[in-house]
Structures are given as structure tokens and as C-alpha cells.
Automatic annotation (TrEMBL):
PANTHER family in the record: PROTEIN SYS1 HOMOLOG, SYS1
Protein name: Protein SYS1 homolog
Gene: LOC100817072
Family per similarity comment: Belongs to the SYS1 family.
Annotated source species: Glycine max
Pfam families per UniProt: SYS1
Membrane topology: Multi-pass membrane protein
Localisation: Golgi apparatus membrane
């Protein structure tokens, strides 16, 4: 990790966004299959992209909410390993959720449920703040200079 002058590389940024988005949905699918898949007869894309599935009125809805929040925790770890800069955590976290919003609009229409907005707002906050905290912790570690000294 060398943080000198960074050259702007749009292909790297796009690759990081695609990689984070894929990891987010893989993790969400894993948590949905564990928490929701045991409760329903057939797991479908409704639980991923339809705002109606995120509800507090059923146990299955609470399982969907837990899946989204656990995915945001995992997303913070992904940001920590793939992005490595605390200044970029909010940008990449917001990008994941903005892309998710667009997919949800295409799939099920504009999310009109306040629960959907609260869950996704909490998810972006958790991902950005925890990812930033993890990155800051690494950035503030001492740099060991013993490996650069010559044995004279």
C-alpha cells in the first residue's frame, strides 16, 4: 500500500465498482438463502429487488431486513480490502446503493415503503462508516522502516 500521487484510472474504478456490486449481491443472496430460503417455498428476485419484501409485519420480512443489514456489514469488509482508502469509502458505498436503487426501480417501481428507505439508508451508513473505520485503522498504523535499513 503506497499512497503517493495516484493517477486517475477510470478502468480501475469501474472494475472496483463492478467487483463490489457483484460481491454485495452474492453475499445478499447467501444471506437470503440462509435466512429467507428456509421460510419460503421458492426464493426469487422479489426478495432482492422489490420493496414490498422489506416489511416489519412478518417474520420473513424481518429475515429480509437482517439479510440486507448483514450484507452491508460484509460490504464494509469488501470496501476495506478492495478500495483501501478511507476517503473513498462513502463514494463506493453510495455507488453500490445507487445502482441497487436503479435496479429496484426497473424491477418493481419506485420504492414507496418507508421501511425500504430506512433499511437501505442504514445499510449505506453501516457500509460507509464501518469501511471508513477499518481503512482508517490501517492507514494510521506505523510504517515500519526496519526493512529499508541496510545491515552496515
Amino acid at each position: 500500500m503506497f499512497y503517493g500521487s495516484v493517477v486517475w484510472d477510470p478502468w480501475l474504478i469501474v472494475a472496483q465498482i463492478v467487483c463490489l456490486q457483484c460481491l454485495y449481491y452474492i453475499t445478499l443472496g447467501l444471506f437470503l438463502s440462509i435466512l429467507v430460503g428456509t421460510r419460503v417455498s421458492r426464493l426469487s428476485l422479489v426478495y432482492f429487488f422489490d420493496y414490498v419484501a422489506i416489511t416489519t409485519s412478518t417474520i420473513t420480512g424481518w429475515c429480509v431486513i437482517a439479510s440486507f443489514l448483514l450484507s452491508s456489514l460484509a460490504g464494509a469488509v469488501y470496501v476495506f480490502y478492495l478500495i483501501e482508502r478511507s476517503k473513498k469509502c462513502l463514494d463506493f458505498s453510495a455507488t453500490i446503493y445507487i445502482v441497487h436503487l436503479f435496479i429496484c426501480i426497473v424491477y418493481g417501481g419506485w420504492p414507496s415503503s418507508i421501511t425500504w428507505w430506512i433499511v437501505n439508508g442504514t445499510g449505506i451508513a453501516v457500509m460507509a462508516l464501518l469501511g471508513e473505520r477499518l481503512c482508517m485503522k490501517r492507514e494510521l498504523q506505523e510504517i515500519s522502516l526496519t526493512r529499508f535499513r541496510s545491515n552496515v
